[in-house]
Amino acid sequence: MLKRNIASGIIRHLVKYTGYRDRPIEERQLRFQNGCREGHTEIAFAATGTNLQLVFGVSSGNFAGDPRECDFDKEHGKVHLKSHLIMNGVCVTWRGWIDLERLDGVGCLEYDEERAAEEDALLRDQIERYNRRVQEIEDKHRAYRTGGVQPPHLNHHYHGHHGHLGVPGSGGGVDPHLNHRQDPEMEVRLRAY
Questions:
Q1: Domain ends where: 111, 141, 168?
Q2: Which pTM value belongs to this model?
Q3: Which of 39, 49, 83, 170 could tie 163 with a disulfide, CB 3.0–4.6 Å?
Q4: Does residue 178 sit in the same domain as residue 146?
């Protein structure tokens, strides 16, 4: 539904800077501009109250840092911002401008088809790796159940509570399921222990 609303242009509204509301306007203006230069700011859509933390430039993890994502020079008295984010599972781009004196402006969310394709490819790759790992584990368990491979487990020799390990006086012989670990040298060392 969000994707459909974004595509139809419904989410295009007046926005306001929401940071440091308890401070005087001059301090808020300075903090807003400094935050933008650092690559982050907080805005809200006035009509819906939807708050967004915008990150752009180097702060967005994009090391090249696109200078057009925060442009103080495009229009006098305004900063033009562009930020990529995932909102309710949908890849979107926030685009807009904010007046440097009033700390309000206009912004919209646009569906980001390119980033959605990238995220989808990453998700599919992750699911494929997960499924492959699950299949490997199921194959190992199937092999254990059919007797083709012995399951790995702790060395019980140190615990001394199993009578089937062939330790003199324990009352039992070597159990057939442990014959793959019965190294004669190891047995001698363990008995001496």
A1: 111
A2: 0.60
A3: 170
A4: no
Structure token digits, residue 87:
């909102």
Whole-angstrom distance, CA of residue 119 vs CA of residue 130: 16
Place of tokens 């006086």: 169
Per residue in 108-135, pLDDT tens? 999 999 989 998 999 999 999 999 999 9
For 101, residues 6+ apart whose C-beta sits below 8 A from its C-beta are 29, 77
Domain extent for 178: 156-192
Bridge-based pairing state of the strands 70-71 and 51-55: unpaired
The pair of three-digit structure tokens given for residue 178, joined into one six-digit string: 């442990």
Q: In this structure, are 74 and 136 located in the same domain? A: no
Convert the pLDDT of each residue in 5-55 to its tens digit. 555 554 568 999 999 999 999 999 999 999 999 999 999 999 888 999 999
129-158 tens-digit pLDDT = 999 999 999 988 888 888 755 555 555 555
Count of domains for the chain: 3
17 CB-near residues (< 8 Å, 6+ apart): 28, 32, 41, 42, 43, 98, 103, 104
